[in-house]
Amino acid sequence: MLELRPNCECCDKDLSADSVEAMICTYECTFCRRCVEDILNNVCPNCGGGFVNRLIRPKTARRPGVSLEYQPASTQRVHTKYSIEELKAFADSVKVIQPEDR
């Protein structure tokens, strides 16, 4: 089940569980759309993969036990260990390779 991390790992922007700005890679690294487009060039700085829109977990349990009420979003903030310059350099070195070929 997705953690639904509460922030962008790069700029620390708040990303609520229902945010349409949240993007994730296959390992659930979480970044805001602006950082993915303007800094990372759709390259995850941790695994080298691409990003997709993070799914939104239902607020209301329309099936018993299945909603944010029963599986709340994470409150643990995650931050990248890389500087903006390191993020850009890594993304630039990989961005020419399509995500499915990385």
Report what the structure shows:
The longest helix has 11 residues, at 84-94. Helices cover 17% and strands 8% of the residues. The chain is α+β, with helices and mostly antiparallel strands. A hairpin with a 5-residue loop joins β1 (22-24) and β2. It has one domain.
SSE layout and pairing:
Layout: E1 22-24, E2 30-32, H1 33-38, E3 52-53, H2 84-94
Antiparallel strand pairs: 1-2, 1-3
Domain RING-type: 8-47
Protein name: DUF1272 domain-containing protein
InterPro entries: DUF1272, Znf_RING
Q: From the helix content, strand content and strand pairing, which structural class follows? A: alpha+beta
**Helix share, percent:** 10-25%
What is the distance, rounded to the nearest whole angstrom, between the alpha carbons of the first and last residues? 25 Å
The largest pleated sheet is described as: 3 strands, antiparallel
Total discrete domains: 1
Q: What proportion of the residues form beta strands (DSSP E)?
A: 5-15%
Low-confidence stretches: none
Specify the overall morphology. Answer: elongated
Estimated radius of gyration: 14 Å
SSE pattern:
EEHEH
* Helical stretch tally: 2
User: What is the average per-residue confidence, as pLDDT, rounded to a whole number?
Assistant: 96
Q: Any key phrases for this structure?
A:
single chain; 102 residues; alpha+beta; 3-stranded antiparallel β-sheet; 2 helices
What would you say about this model in short?
Residues 8-47 form the RING-type domain. The protein is an alpha+beta fold and 102 residues long.
